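hey can u check if this looks right to u? its 196 residues, i copy pasted from the old doc so theres a chance i mangled smth
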Amino acid sequence: MKEGRRGEVACLALRASAAFSRNGITNDDGLPHCFFPSQTPGHQRASTIVNWIIYLLAALAGAANPGQSAANAELNKRLGNLYISTAFVYGTGLIGVLILAVCVHRSLPAADKFAAVPWWAWTGGLLSIGATLAGAAFAQRLGSGVFTGITVTAAIVISIVLDHFGWMGLKQHPATALRILGSLLMIVGLWLTAKF
């Protein structure tokens, strides 16, 4: 029984560190083998707890989006230059990432890993510029609710398309009728938010 408990704790520790380290016992994706549910009830409970923690962190990341857009819009308003304010946004973000890198003490990836990266995987930063510029330019004009509703609805629609075809390295997840209905409900919710 104690061995089972120790196994659960060790599994949780590996899962928690998976975001920061690719070392140790891993599968082909670089995640610990125990990251995936096993047949034992104890491991399944541990997996459920970890999933809820991940959901909470994802929700917190989403909750930060309206604040980010509002801050970027105010910075743009005060400086009067959309591109300079956006440069400051990415500059402070770079500083934050470098601080985290120093604290975590991650080693640099090997040269062969850089060579194996597909070309489109390098475009994430460029794609994010559009969202940052839009937030700085339009968040105050449209209002946080409407702007966030538009961006989230668009993100949901594109996410369903990407999942359906399994593009950009994502696991294929068919666009079922219920998923499409969910996106339509998002659009209705956006209209209600903008109308009232």
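The chain has a mean pLDDT of 79.
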